[in-house]
Write a structure and sequence with these properties.
The chain has about 650 residues and is mainly beta. The chain folds into 4 domains: about 10-175 and about 330-395, no CATH class; about 180-315, Jelly Rolls (Sandwich), CATH 2.60.120; about 405-520, Immunoglobulin-like, CATH 2.60.40; about 530-655, Immunoglobulin-like, CATH 2.60.40. The strands form 10 sheets. Strands 1, 2, 4, 6, 7, 12, 15, 24, 27, 28 and 29 form an 11-stranded mixed β-sheet that branches. The longest helix has 10 residues, at about 30-40. The protein is flat.
Length: about 650
């Protein structure tokens, strides 16, 4: 969704983008003014056109360091490499950045009370992000923060506060100063013992599954998570606030297990109906103590806890709530569009649209990584949705910069067999990168046959760019296996074919055409089955035209095929519906009729198959001990390509013989 490529990074420090409201009131404030102000900030004469690697000053409510740059008046520019800090403030401050990462371009919009510090020498891919002036909301569902976005179909990776964010579209990042825990306590719970993977300290626990089961009066709906600085260095002495979400009437407070004579409410005790909040002061770990824990008792009436927020309010327990010092905080990363992964501390979370992950920070560095959580209110932010999804919110920059055309190179035409073909083109926009697919929207393929007719035409939108589809390796189109036709069914003509391919980048520029001449011819297809020649039987057919009852009859055949014979079968059946002809020879019974009739019955009126053995091209199979009736048999054979042939049916009588 970007308009232009930026080789290094460009920043538009835009005037009057966002409307100021205090945090308490912001949730009721419409975002219409913020959206209108965004349009005003990118008009001509402010920061509509920005040079590559430059920053444009567009708002009096932005402070940039170092001050020696004198970057403090509308229209002034500075090299991005010279800036060490960009601080935006409500009501009007906002900054638009375009960065070039190893994988492609990433747009960043920093707004509200936010402070972004580019890491020097990182080419704009590493930042420290902090809330400034206590953070706060811009308008409905829109906290101060940073939105990051790649071009459609492209990848980009940024590192924010030591957390690597790899995105394939749009994410929103914000810092909640001082928030240590903000989720369902069932996630990462203790289960009776310390949970090393808990999102906060050793995890919360409950005597009754946080109210999922009925809690008797005095039972603990919530206890834990045993926070103390020795084991969890992000824990500070001072004032904390607990907010409980749920239903029912409870008694809540805080204590430290192992000290204070096991008083569950040593630090605070409050009785209220949920949802509600309270504060307590923790002055540090006491002798015998294991760290502070929140305690919520049941009053005996139905109650449950669905969500807990724990905030650090500062070291002065006598003060009411103030913004956190900045040493502790929670950075939230939400997936607004596409797909992203978030990695820190050797762990990775994969986020779909509407999901988020929370990272506990200490001194701007990650301490713990939460499980995947719902993104919450930011998904409904009019500002974030508009900036992410509406092209009107993506202004043109660097309009006067001439971008290099994309490059396309033919790297594969597997035409050594003139009856098969594979095509692959590598394409990239050099101002974005040289990796296959960098900055490319699509690659068009076209093949014409010797008569000039188009026999292949397709567009590939993701690398690897293959003429017949597939990935890496590309699909090889075997004409012999496809009845000597192209994918759309047109017949293959023998002769020289013309290949043409062209890459189009995300800005609509096209590469120089790639061309090649390829000779193709139809495959010689084998669609005939094996040749079958009967060689006779053993015993031979009697003069009367049949065989004796009880005979083991072996059928012999010569079977050949240029591709090789895969298998052969002898099919036979016996019928008894018609009378059996008599012999005119003198009758002498070889065996008594009763002994013959007492043999195990053979299947009658049903075809039976016997696999034939072979010695070179000679195949044979034996029908054992046939009873009286009419015998029919024939041979079926298949070659290595699956072509099948069938010999004529032979018919003979099986009767009682005399000598």
């Amino acid at each position: 969704m970007f308009i232009n490529t930026v080789k290094w990074m460009s920043i538009a420090l835009m005037s009057t983008m966002l409307w100021w409201m205090s945090t308490a009131v912001a949730q009721a404030q419409s975002c219409d003014a913020a959206l209108a102000a965004y349009d005003d900030a990118i008009q001509p004469g402010v920061c509509q056109t920005i040079g590559v690697g430059k920053a444009c000053y567009g708002s009096s409510q932005i402070t940039a360091l170092p001050e020696s740059l004198a970057f403090n008046a509308l229209g002034k520019t500075a090299n991005i490499a010279s800036l060490s800090s960009i601080n935006t403030r409500l009501p009007n401050g906002a900054a638009l950045l375009y960065a070039q990462t190893d994988e492609g371009r990433v747009k960043l919009i920093v707004f509200g009370n936010s402070n972004a510090l580019p890491s020097q020498g990182s080419a704009g891919s590493v930042f420290t992000l902090r809330p400034s002036s206590g953070g706060g909301y811009v308008c409905n569902n829109t906290p101060s923060g940073m939105m990051i976005q790649t071009n459609q179909g492209q990848q980009g990776t940024l590192t924010i506060n030591g957390v690597k964010v790899r995105l394939g579209s749009t994410a929103f990042i914000w810092i909640e100063g001082g928030v240590l825990f903000d989720q369902d306590p069932r996630i990462g719970r203790r289960l009776g013992q310390r949970n090393p993977d808990a999102p906060l300290c050793s995890g919360f626990d409950s005597d009754c599954h946080f109210g999922d089961d009925r809690c008797a009066a005095g039972s603990r709906l919530v206890w834990g998570p045993y926070c103390q600085r020795g084991s969890y260095p992000y824990i500070e002495n001072g004032l904390y606030r607990v907010t409980l979400y749920g239903s029912g009437r409870v008694i809540a407070g805080a204590t430290e297990y192992g000290s204070n004579n096991r008083d569950h409410f040593a630090f605070a005790r409050h009785e209220f109906t949920l949802p509600s909040s309270y504060t307590f002061c923790w002055r540090g770990q006491q002798p015998g103590g294991q760290g502070f824990e929140t305690i919520v008792h049941s009053t005996g009436s139905p109650a449950r806890i669905d969500h807990i927020t724990l905030e650090y309010l500062g070291s002065d327990c006598a003060r009411s709530y103030t913004a956190a010092s900045g040493r502790n905080g929670v950075m939230a990363v939400a997936n607004i569009e596409g797909h992203i992964t978030v990695s820190a501390l050797g762990e990775t979370r994969s986020l779909d649209v509407g999901e988020a992950v929370h990272i506990l920070l200490r001194d701007d560095q990650p301490q713990t990584l939460s499980p995947v959580l719902p993104a919450g209110e930011v998904m409904a932010s009019p500002v974030i949705r508009w900036l992410a999804l509406d092209p009107a919110g993506l202004p043109e920059v660097n309009r006067g910069v001439q971008l290099r055309a994309p490059v396309a190179q033919l790297v594969e035409t597997s035409d050594r067999d003139p009856s098969s073909l594979s095509i692959r083109v590598v394409a990239y926009a050099p101002d974005v990168g040289t990796r296959d697919g960098a900055g490319i929207d699509h690659v068009d393929f076209r093949v014409t046959d010797p008569t000039g007719r188009i026999v292949l035409q397709r567009a590939e939108r993701t690398a690897a760019y293959c003429g017949f589809g597939g990935d890496d390796p590309c699909t090889v189109w075997d004409f012999g296996e496809n009845d000597n036709t192209w994918p759309d069914g047109q017949p293959l003509q023998a002769g020289v074919h013309q290949l043409w391919a062209e890459a189009t980048d995300v800005n609509g520029q096209t590469s120089a055409p790639v061309t090649a001449r390829i000779y193709l011819e139809p495959a010689i297809t084998d669609n005939r089955g094996p040749a079958i020649e009967y060689l006779g039987t053993r015993p031979q057919v009697r003069a009367s035209g049949g065989y004796c009852v009880g005979s083991d009859i072996t059928v012999y055949a010569r079977i050949t095929d240029p591709a090789g014979v895969a298998n052969a079968q002898l099919w036979y059946r016996l019928t008894t519906e018609e009378s059996i002809g008599s012999s005119d020879e003198p009758v002498v019974l070889l065996r008594s009729p009763s002994s013959l009739l007492s043999q195990p019955a053979q299947p009658l009126d049903q075809w039976t198959a016997l696999e034939m053995d072979n010695a070179d091209d000679f195949y044979f199979a034996t029908m054992d001990g046939l009873p009286r009736g009419r015998l029919e048999y024939y041979v079926v054979a298949s070659d290595e390509f699956g072509n099948q042939s069938e010999a004529a049916v032979n018919t003979h009588e099986i009767f009682f013989c005399v000598d």
